[in-house]
Amino acid sequence: MLDKINLLVDTNSLIHLSKIELGRGLNADEWVYEHFNVYQIEQIVKEYRRNIKKEATFNRKNPLKKKNNFKKRNLRKFQGYATYLDLKQLEIIEHTVVANYYKKTLGDDDRGERHLIASAIGAIYLRKFNYCIILTDDYTAFRKFLGKIKDDFKFGDVWNVFDIITYLFLIKKSMSVEFATNAIRTLCAFSSIPVKYFIEQHKQGITEFEARGKMGTFYVEKIQKNNALRRVL
Amino acid sequence: MNNINWHSLFLKKNPFGIVPDKSPENIFWAGFESIKSKYEKTFLSLLNSDESRIVLNVSRWGGGKTHAAYFYSDPKNIPGIAHVIDKPISIIINTPKEGNIAPNEFFKLILEELGIDKLTQLVSNIRTTLGSEMTLAMLKETAKNDIIAKIIWNLGDADPDTSFEASELLFNSPTASQRKKFRMSRGIEGTSDKFRLIATLFKLLSNYNDKGNFIESRKIFLWMDEIESLILYSSKHYIPFTQALRELVDDVSSNFYLFLNFSLSDYDDLRTLEFIIGKALFDRITDKNFFDEPSTNEGLAYIKQSLEHWRTDDFNRQNEFFPFIKEKIEYILTVGPEMTSLPLTARTINKWCLAFLNKANEMGLLEPPVSELNDDEIYNFVLAK
Question: Is A186 in contact with B341 (Cβ distance < 8 A)?
Fold first, then answer.
């Protein structure tokens, strides 16, 4: 049996995944729990609980049973905190390694992302994991410091939710192209998914609508390339 | 700084509005002959066939698609219509921005544009012409849905209270007493009912004139502006909404033309356009118009004709571009797009021209008697933006 990939997840990404239905009546976050070892760090859990509380309060008004179980389901699924690092070790890595890449003062902004990457580096250094993936949709954080740290410290990779959908499409033969395309379309509709990268690519300037469209096309093409493999094997 | 005194420039009002002027008395077409001729070719092609069609209009943001919708909603501007007795009906709506309420929003917008009072009068007139029972039979046959037929039929009831109750049923579920009164088991429910009701109304409008007399056919043009907003819909909302649009076109089947206005910057990336609209709807499009950016000369013609249209009667200067200097404007139109990374669209030209005038006003150069604006500072500052 294959070992599952270790995944350190950012709050926004988890929330995005929980809103995508991928098939078998399951949302994408449940597929992620099935195929990855999903780890949390305390900062992210705090942020997530705040968001879940907001969502759960809203959803209590909703008669659908699935949504009423939202809070219970989501908090139950975490496989545990990334407790291989205590807070002191995490802060040491944050203040010594991460701070070299993070140009501003280490305040509340981006604390979750800084702790995520400090946990990833710590996990590899302390030989708790061989490899891990950070899941975040924060493109600004990726451009500011996550991407550069990833290049210098070979702990693994940084993915966004589109990468997760593409990976799940590769390993789950039961996921149709239609489901994957629909998932990508839904993600493109979320205002919390940034499109800066696609706006920056276009010299003459494009509207946000068009940037979201380009983002969708970009990732649907990846699905189609993966689908080509299914047709030959 | 005072507001610009347009009369000192021999102008009745600001010819360079940033927001399209929607009032029929103010709408006119200036310049951009290549764009106009594409629209006119499209209309001539549509009018030669009765089959319902979907037309896609693509241009850059600010390229004049909304203006075209309002311009061509005046029947006198549509080519090939002069001899037609029953002038076409044009409806212009913005694509709803929120997917979860899109069908409801679409339904409301269409009914508001058509006008409940006008619809009430139309049905009443048809009932007078055809007779009550025949009208109900005709509506049942047209709608293929007894509930929808009864609601529309009751809109035209002679009793104003009954008519009003029927109009309420367009937007609300019926109470038990209303269900009993109108002999209906339910009200209008779901996207399918709403779109079928719209299709029925379109068929009525196409086949009956305002007096309730049967006519050969009347064209219905529905313009959906900002169709790129579909990218904001999750797949759960996008799929049923676009399916309903396709079914609307199929259901009406003749004399109905759906115009989709799409803003796109990158004409080389048609896959993005297809992704946003969706393959199912994209494959149904029968006519695609891509409007290129105008040339410098077309831009100049636009400015000249805009000024001409709003000139006061006492204008007697030789310079048709007054208060601008033609060569200075021409320079800006030529180098401006590259230097500012802005596309050369009607909106950009309007913004620049208005900026020139505001700058001149700041510099105190628009106090009467106004001379031609020769100072480079008035023009070149827009290149810095």
Answer: no
